[in-house]
Design brief:
alpha+beta; two-stranded antiparallel sheet; Glutaredoxin; 7 strands; about 270 residues; five-stranded mixed beta sheet
Amino acid sequence: MAEHTHSEHDTHDSWFSHMKPKTTFFLGIGSALVIFFVVGFFILLGIMLKGDSGEDKIADKKAAPTAQANPTPQAEAPAPSAGAEDLPPVTDADWTRGEKDAPVTIVEYSDLECPFCKRLHPTLKQVIAEYNGKVNWVYRHFPLVNLHSQATKEAEATECAGELGGSDGFWKLLDKIYEVTPANNGLDLAKLPDYAQEVGLDKEAFTACLESGKYTQKVQDQAQGAVLAGGAGTPYNVVVKGDTKIPVSGAVPFENFKNVIDSLLE
């Protein structure tokens, strides 16, 4: 008599046919959940790999509040509604690095706790050095308060430095803060008077100025100006020559600025 052997297919069919409907149902649900989580993982991985854009955005997820000495009121920045053509004009109230009568100006809107602004800072120093009198740099405040709750107070600190030490005092403290901060609310605000003293400012006068909140409104006004000029994140730069205004967003390399500046100087 010929021996009958079950094929693998027959074995599987027999196994499933003897399973209870309830067991089959839960196996199906389990398989679907496994597929869902695997697909979700790869989608999330793709989003994370695209995350480093070289710019902190206004609409980014709100950062957790960080304790801050003498907190000041902070206004939310509205959604961008215009462009670089609406850049507020440069005036004597601005802090300028380089020759004031240089034919090209870079207006930077920046946040002292933004890691991309920290990355861009030495690049703009390089631009001023290499163009030697042909380009100047105007620094304006654009603290993204949803991300960096400490940035407004640090911006006010640089204004106090400017009050006490002029342009030299402003830029020295600005450089110092970018040098020491790890970014993303990593700076200890209690050390700001010590940093001011390190760059040659009177510690007591600086502390009194900072605690007064006298520059809160100026910082907020400049942030509003950034939005009017098309800024949607930091760093946001506008390269200006006469009536020509070219926006440059993000922590771009020196070559990007060189291409824009050279086209304006031709």
